[in-house]
Amino acid sequence: MKHLFTVSLLCGAMATLANAQSVTVITKDGKVTIFDAKEVKEITFEEKAPVEEPVRFIEVEGSAYSVSNAGFTFRSADGSELTLDIYTEAAGYLKAGEYAVGGSEGLYIDKNEKYTYYKVGDTTLELKSGKMTVDYTGVDYSLGFDFILSDESILKGSYEGSLPAYAQYNNVALSACNQFDLDSPAPGEFYMKLNDTNWKYEVVLDFFLEPGSKVIPTGVYNLNENEEAPCYGPYSQVDKYSPNATIKINTPVTVEDNDENTVIKFEVADENGVVYNFTFDGLINYIE
To answer: Whole-model pTM?
Structure first.
């Protein structure tokens, strides 16, 4: 961060210049510059504090509030925190581009000090202006920060890595898989419910297997509207929370063995093109 202050020499300095033929300036590196005194209007001394290195943020937490809005807090190794309230024109994810502080449409960062600020120790500074640049490849994001803070200091920084929310590509680990006891299941129907540890995602996979099946065999299962085994049926879906959305499953579902565990994998995309890669790797709780 950089602080500037200026001292101007007016009356006395200009009186001296009136009687001089030239003004010679010698900088610390030995460079000499000579000015004609008649061309000099004002002498200004500017002192600059050393420019600090850009801040490298290594951790992030955040949440999506809607398809247009998300909030993130980035932390550095020394504990400084950058909190941003970000808007993306209903993209549903953090799009690549430039986000201006104080904008009101398109890609921008709301500068309300309640939701956007930089905190170092006990000092909290507002963001006056500047921009955030966003780029990404798959699940990995590259963010650049260039802000002017409320004390006129400059904050430059970066973050490299995945986002916990509001990314276009998301890897979701499901932690539980339970067979649900239907009142009147079809022969060979295995109605399975899965979820992650934070209950941000709930999944229904309605498998139809050969009658008499005791477990779900390994293989690749596809959607079949007529529920003709082996397949999964049209009630299979993902319920996502914060923001809320229901995504129908219509892509292949793979079931594999991993020692004693069963691995279930599938990928879905919502209407905004946000992709979710789901994986369950554990023991299935079947109805006895």
So the answer is: 0.77
